[in-house]
Amino acid sequence: MSELEKAFLKFANYGNTSTTGSDMTDKNFSKMCQECGVMDGKAVNSDDVAIAFNKVKATGARTINYIQFLQAIKVLCGKRFSRKLSEDALQATFKLLEGREPANVETTKSVARRVERLTDTSEYMNSNMQHFDKSGKDDGVAGHTDLSQRTSNISNYRGSGT
Rounded to whole angstroms, how far apart are CA atoms 12 and 28? Predict the structure, then answer.
């Protein structure tokens, strides 16, 4: 499997749990073109990418396969590298795409770890369990040691005692 095909599969699978992995949506094709530098905003913009995608996909289909992907890249490479010969433009475009993967794959993993840490309530629950007696009833204000001192972190607060 070539580096270009690996990149295609990574972008095809990005964010899609229902795909078989061998087809790419227009959204993922656009993401790939944008992140890999095929879409530069000058020679190739989002409209060009959408036109290339729709030109190669089958009538009524919502996705393209790898062969159709190569055809769409061939359509875009002439616009992206207009000063190069067609074969050189195609190779230059392939180099932009080879070995790439969606930008925020690692970000998603780190966010999941952070959320897991944020939702861990064991420390909070252990510190607040001291307010209850053995039967499970709250000791009231007397049992709350953190409320016994009426202070504020706001200067000149009326109830702060300063």
Answer: 6
In the chain, the amino acid numbered 84 is K
Separation of alpha carbons 21 and 135, rounded Å: 56
Q: What is the pTM of this model?
A: 0.61
**By the 8 A CB rule, do 108 and 85 touch?**
no
Multiple choice CATH, 3-104, 3.30.465.10, 1.10.238.10, 1.20.140.10, 2.60.200.20: 1.10.238.10
**pLDDT, tens only, 55-106:** 999 999 999 999 999 999 999 998 999 899 989 999 999 999 988 888 875 5
DSSP annotation of 143: G
Give one DSSP letter per residue of 50-107, joined into a string. Answer: HHHHHHHSPTT-SEE-HHHHHHHHHHHHHHHTTTS-HHHHHHHHHHHHTT---TTHHH
CB atoms under 10 Å from CB of 145, counted, come to: 9
Are 94 and 1 in contact by the 8 Å Cβ rule? The answer is no
Residues linked to residue 24 through DSSP beta bridges, in sequence order: 64
Instruction: Give the span between the Cα atoms of 162 and 149, in whole angstroms.
Output: 12
